[in-house]
Fold these 2 entries.
Entry 1:
Amino acid sequence: MSAIAAAEGRKSRPAYRLTARGIIAGEWTKFWSLRSSWITTAVSILLLIAIGVIAAAAYTPGAIGRGGRVEGGRDAVTLALAGTTLAALAAGVLGVLLAAGEYSTGMIRSTLTAVPTRLPVLWAKSLTAGGVTFVLVTIGALVSFLLGAPLLHNGVVKAGLGDQGVLRALVGAGLYLGLVAVFGVGLGALLRSSAGGIALIAVLLLILPGLVTLLPDSWSDTIGPYLPGTAGGAVMELHPSGGDLGPWAGLAVFAGYVAVVLAGAAWRLAKTDV
Amino acid sequence: MIEVRQVTKRYGSKTAVDGLSFVVKPGEVTGFLGPNGAGKSTTMRLIVGLDAPTSGTALVNGRRYAEFRSPLHEVGVLLEARSVHPGRTAVSHLMSLARTNSIPRSRVDEVIRLAGLDAVAGKRVGGFSLGMGQRLGIAAALLGDPAVVMLDEPVNGLDPEGVAWVRTLLARLASEGRTVLLSSHLMSEISLIANHLVIIGRGRLLADTSVDALTAQTSGEGVRVCTGDVGRLRSVLTGPDVTVTSTGAEDLLVSGLNARRIGKLAAEHGIALYELTPQSVSLEQAFMNLTRDEVEYTSAFQEIAR
């Protein structure tokens, strides 16, 4: 039968197979083919460098800060990384848009038809968003540190790249923001809503620490170090302050939050209709 | 080959698909028909695993879609709902899907040419017309050179040239031995392309038949005959089951004899016929009759007209 012959002829074509590598390559293509990816990554890096350099140039130790306290003890690394709070927000938004955008546009239907095993999409998306953010933020942190160093005022605790903890703090910024991007992917996939995901990122990273300080001291001192932003940020501190978690312990706590959100996102992706 | 076995899908209290079973065979175009809301799109989503059935199974070539190692090579699907990020260009969209299944760039260029998208390949999809969007969806469906092609309302928004293109394309895909399932709520469109029909209403199977069988089944409404000599013709057309009714001065409606037999009898008796037309209910009418009680959204006009 000609139909069968034709069907066999068709099978002689090279096999198009679903591979882990291919799924990552697909997410990579998706990532760089959206304007929002370019904008959020660029904003993230520019904020990091610009705020870091400005902070280095402007900070004068001994000046009277808010609440009449005499500020002091800021070191070169803290100043170089002054922009990480806002950069983290941009990285989180990037992650949310990558994941939730699939749902708001309907792209998820194309994606899951191509990858019906589903979960690898979430892992590949996390890897892409986290990996790109890690690399670019690490570079941005190094640039900020190196550009800011010559601008520092007298009295600031100076540091060189080779000094203990400096490289750890700068690379830690990359690790922390990379994880924040993955956190965003997880929240976006869990909520399937860009607005909801962005709002939640902002609340968790920016607003929650402020709210906790309103609690009685004994409470806020206990809870504070374990908040997502505070725990994750510990890895960027050259000299961890008294109450905070150690750099790696803090990063591990934040990775735990990310893992919980990703697990929830994975559960929803595997179990529900799209 | 697509096998849908006793599939039921409920969304909350609403049953979209209700104990549906049918088989779509390779080598022919199968039309998937039903009024709006009949469950066509849901069934297609169930076949590619975007939705999970409440009960029953939907298999492609004997396996669940999620089990395939080469999913895009097995099934290509165009869904009715928008499935493209408007911020990407057509090429980027196709490339991002192609890479997951190790499909080379050359194949992406091939389907872009095939779908006539060369001129807009580098443009953002958000600015596409409905017809261009459909062409992109069809290009995506063909990306993996699939054995099974499922298109949900593919001619929506296409211009006449595009509609003709889809028809030719589907006929070719079927002739190559592929399984082709094509949904529509328009019998007139489907009957031009499809050989086989699966008709559903309110999620239930109404008919699983060939276009020819449905045509045959819906004809048998008699033969219209025009002649100048009505009286003589009447006397010739006799038999146990034959009824002849007069519908005009020169018109008769004959049932119980086919056109061939009537023509022969008239010739034997030297009666001139001006017209000899088998009366058949149109496929459109047959479809309406089948689905009349299953229409989800009846317009007020129809309600009044009935």
Entry 2:
Amino acid sequence: MKAFTRIAAIALSVVFVAGLLAGVLAPAHYAKQFREDASASPSGKFLLGTDELGRDRFSRLLYGSRVSLLLAPCAALLSTLLAALIGGAAGYFGGRWEKSAMLFTDLFMSMPWLFLLITVRAVLPLNTAPTTSVLITFSLLGLLGWAASARVVCSGTKSLRNSEFVLQAKAAGCRAGRLFAVHMLPNLKPVLFAQFWISIPVFILAEANLGILGLGVSEPLPSWGSLLRELEDFSAIGLQPWRLVPLFLLLMVVSCFQMVISEKEYSR
Amino acid sequence: MKRYPIRLAALVCVLAALCSAAAQELHFILRSEPKTFNPVLVAEDASDTIRYLTGGVLMRLNRKSQQLEPELAKSWSISKDGRTITFKLREGVLFSDGTPFSANDVAFTMKQLMDPELHSPTGDAFRSGKGDVITQVNGKHHIAIIFPAPVAGLAKLFDQVAIMSGSSPQKEKAVLGAFMVAEYKPGDFVLLKRNPNYWKKDASGRRLPYLESVRLDIQQNRDIELLRFRRGEIHLINDLSPELFDRLAAETSGVTYDAGASMDSEFLWFNQAPKAAIPAYKLAWFRSANFRRAISSAINREDISRLVYGKHAQPAVGPVSPANQFWFNSKLKAQAFDRKAALDRLTQDGFHLEGDMLRDRQGNAVEFSIITNAGNKARERMAAVIQQDLAEIGVKVNVVTLDFPSLIDRMTQSFNYEACLLGLVNTELDPNSQMTVWLSSGENHQWSPNQATPETPWEAEIDKLMRAQASTPDLKKRKQYFDRVQEIVWEQAPFIYLVNKNALCAISSAVRPAEPVVLRPQTYWNAERMVLASDGQK
């Protein structure tokens, strides 16, 4: 098991480092169009071939990894923090607090957030640089994606609140802040970590869906989401199976995350 | 016992007849539910398909020759003032239910068409001025229709007018076209059967159509449509995307057809509206013909055709596609791709390069955004090509894809955009259908709509020419006027025309004759003369 975990950790590190060093490792700029080599198959010059506009897929994958691997975790962190705050407070205080917080959460979950995002994008300034647009996109995802996690956190906090060691701490006169920080938060960590890791691929895919609707990362900046859009043309995959590489990378990264985290949890 | 062989023979005959009927059933897909079977209310593609196949018209625009041909009207004449059209009708024609056809049916159809309560989209094209349309029935087979004002391109408008029976108890179900609606299952299919009373016969005297029936399956998914074509379940596909076309062409030879440049065009324009929510210095760029033409010259249309449409598109010349044989101004050529010429033009307006960045006289960096509709891959790719082409002359472009309602809101209400990339699906040959685009007061005059008075001399000239062409029945003069409009549009580039997409389609090798054309309906325009060959005959 440990060997697998080590391999997973190494694989993750490689992908992260490759993403961070995209500027150095990529053979070409992500926006550079080699128009005479459009839709080229993998070769020494283009490791993963080129897209319809002649852009080097490998370079775009490296730059896209940087965008997605840095920003999807940031969005996941933001949403998990919000979930911890709202769900944790609701579970800890219970009663009316819980009812109102969960009502708010349900309201948030029932909101057509996709349309909300479209509306938000529609009112943003048009001359927004691609980098700013990607930051806005992931921030919005983080701000809107906390509700489901908040329910899970609330339920976890509730069960902790009624546990014997918390009751004992309360009886010993432990104050609310300390009780939460010292006794409850460490026990909530697995729940929060799980929510965090689950959110990352969800946000990467949400960004891909938004790309189709016009709210994703704008051209020419790549992200895993925009690279996954090449799979829309499903029947072309048989002819160009290398189009699947971003999907495999996403699956690999998510699986590696899970393996590393699970190992940490088991070893606790 | 003796009768057994006779019965068997009869059974074989019946089965053979059934098989033959089934073999002569043309199948293709309707991409949406037909909203109506009433020909005067048709407003979308699916209903239009059914109208085309079932409706009998006074005259038909031959989709191949682009010439009007007599149908239910043996002949027609238009008065010098362009207000009256007189028809001499074909005799002995019956509706599908056996009701005889007469001038009264034409009068009834015109009444329906112009009924303000019905809001007929087909009827709108005939509204030329204030006042009623008068029909004068001069005998059983003569009718004159008088309009309150001249209607330009009047005769061609009748290609869309399916004549309805004024006396049949079946109302709009009684038709004069080659087929009639036999069965409709919402969400599933529309079955059209051969009209046994169809008036047209072939050279050998055989009554048309040859096909027994046409089955139109309702299916929105284009991939499923392609799959069914591959399986041989459907015979035709109209409007194939370049990717699907190339894939199908690679798999099966002899079933894909590239009919050449279609009437559809893709273009870009700058927001020049005085009330546009953009900085004054940018508005000044966009209102300069030099700036617009420079941008036009810096865009490589050949690359757009090759990279975005897999060579299934032609560099566009102007508002009229070469597919429109009569109205296209053949003196004009597509803007040549020339970066040096683009920079020279920009220099004339005081623009200069500072490093990699183009700046105007005041030192403002030349940067603008192009909006387009989200989810349209071809346009997104086209925008990326333009982005790189313009970067080569120091212009920074931000591509913004928006959902369609937001896009329309920015284009027509808030005017909060800088440039827009869209396309036009053009079904009408006559320039009259583009009046609201070219008149400066028009709401579709996208670069600066609804002008109280023309903002520029060239827009005033276009107004004058468009009104002149619309008010004369003399086709030669109309052509001269509209040729000049095309020249002005080419010189001023209010719309930067990019490409005309090719008309791509697929026709099964069983279908004879396969003669796809660029005008809609591309593949089944000659359905009344189509036959399906059996496997052995393919």
